[in-house]
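Following the same procedure, sequence and fold were stored together, as reproduced here.

>
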Amino acid sequence: MTRSLPISLYALVLLLCIFVVGCASAPEDRGPSKPHHRLGGFQNLPGGLDKPGFGDFLRWQRERLVGDVVPQEADRVPRVEIDLPGLHAQRLGWQMTWLGHSSVHLQVDGLHILIDPALSSRASPFEHFGPKAYNPTPVSLKQLPRIDVVLVSHNHYDHLDERTIRA
């Protein structure tokens, strides 16, 4: 006896395939105006920050503190309270909830998927150092439903938060 998979599972697999292919595709413009574009992807140019040193770090900090960078306003992105009972409800169909920056909770026919989980107060590999979030995440880890699948698009520390993954 064979058992067929629900159509939403096929839709989820198709969505993930599109996501992977979209992230893997090379840029179309490889003209001389963008010399770091290569057939196999991007390449750091000579003289760039291939291996940044401590002086590069200090220069970056000085530019951050005294440069003409426009500060972000915390209320620039409106906050909406998360419907926690709706987040936990086992529903048919799709429901997507943006959790800030890169983090998204996706529910597909009761399957809870967490995409690019970064729910700490800092975008940093360190708990007490690094850029602090302008806005707190709309839910805490304890408020999330049981997560069935975690999807990580890439391993930058602002998309792959170790504390969130471990929890």
